[in-house]
Amino acid sequence: MGDMANLFGTGRFAQPSGQEEATDEAQEAADEAAEEVRLRLAVDAGDVEATSVLGAMLLRRGDFDGAESHLRAATAAGDRAAANNLGVLLHQRGYADEAAGWWRIAAVAGSAAAAHALGRHFRERGDEPAAEYWLCQSAEQGHVLGAYALADLLEHRGDDTGAERWMRAAAERGHREAAYRLARTLDRHAGQDRGGQDRGGQDRAGQDRGDDKAAALAADEAEQWYRQAAARGHRRGALHLGTILEKRGELKEAGRWYLTSAKDGEARAACALGFLLRDAGDTESAAVWWLRAAQDGDGNAANALGALHAERGETQTAERWYRAAMDAGDDNGAYNLGLLCAEQGRTTQAEQWYRRAAYAGHREASNALAILLLRAGDETGAEPWFSKAAEAGSVDAAFNLGILHAGRSEERAALRWYERAAAAGHTEAALQVGMARLRAGDEREAERFLRCAAGGGSAEAAYRLATVLDARRPPEPAHELGEPAQEKSECEEWYERAASQGHRRAQVRVGMLAAARGDVVEAARWYREAAEAGSRNGAFNLGLLLAREGSEPEAVVWWRRAADAGHGRAALRLALVCARRGELAEGQRWADLAVSLGPREVGERAARLRDALRQELSA
Length: 619
Fold this sequence. Notes:
The chain is mainly alpha-helical. It is elongated, with a radius of gyration of 41 Å. The N and C termini lie far apart (111 Å). The chain is built from 35 helices and no strands.
């Protein structure tokens, strides 16, 4: 506090205040008045340059009558700057042709500014050759506006090389719009280089590497020009720079540029800033920026506000913002309204909004509409919408078409759609393709698709892949007590992945593998998980394990559960336990059940046991 007080006291620490700003303005006005007096004295003394400068000063002030007389006098004396400014004055008064005459005089005399103005005049008149000539004169003299205007003209005419050259020249001289447009051009170049890599021939790999390098260089240079445009106050440049940084994970700097752009009135930047804040957990601040963007007509922000209110259960407010998004031309508004109505059970309204979005080309709305129609039993009406969504790139719709055709036993058509969805990364579609390949006997292709599906998180795919790998491996030697356990094979790892995701058959198999290794505790854990999830095999195997460990009463509990679920071997075990205990009638009942459940060898054993129990009961 003491140091700050000393600075205030010495006057070396300047305090901004309204009074100081007013004083500065007054001083500027006084300085300008003094300069005008000096210039008028020089004009009276016949100074041509002073006459030209005074005319320009009056022109800036809006005193056209006072300016014109001085500018004409200086022009008559051969001052080219005065001729240019006289052209500006006449143009502002609506005398475009007379203005062009004075600009020509100034341009011929070497005025780059006049050549630029004359070029703009001819372009407005539609005389592009004349416009290009004069703009070229201006640009080659180093006039930044001339360079930018020439680049704009050449770009309009399709001369991309010339346009880029002069846009770069204008950008290097500080023109912020030129810097932004040059960055956009380089961005397009980078996209074209990335997208044009599908070429044939033996040099394809080398060409692809070259294209990758060219794309990376163009993207890096684009970023630098975005940065220069943003630093000069270009709000869209700041928006694009923020987008690049966000994609790269540099969220803090991205947020700063989004904020800069949003404060300058860029609605898209305000919307992007809102998403950045939401992802950081600050939904309240996010809502503030979304509101600002939505009020400026950003449909994406209106949808975000709608989703935020929907999550809070404020459905009426959510609906209002979704409608605002729709009014802003965002088809997601209609789709989100459909989702909202569907969640509330308002099926008719949901269909209406889905249709509106679907007719506008919204692929997810087309898929949602098809699902709605399918659930209502209208398969004929659903299929075209699934097709439309799939053709537009909806992976879910392609998968749904596969299900639709499979339900009609149209296996080839189903497989075609499953393959399309699988190629786009759909996990369940990859599983279906893998299963189809297995049925066709193409084990290698099946493995490829099953690996994709298993890697995507499908427990069934992980189990099926494990069974494929399991069938290939050679039999392992029996494990002897005291021997170190062998390393787990790949198939066992896939079984365990499926088991950890709750796949009951995988859990039973992992239990069996653990038991084969002599790990009774691990085996019991997996059998129990499967049994508690409803697996009759898990219950039966758990019973066997418990019986071997001397826990027959608990084993009986699990065998009973397995037998009640239709497990013949479990019923036979129960019959044997009852026979040993002397519970002959109960044993006969379980033996009867085992006969009916099978399999054949179990049924034969159970029949012999039943007959023996029946004889003993009748004796």
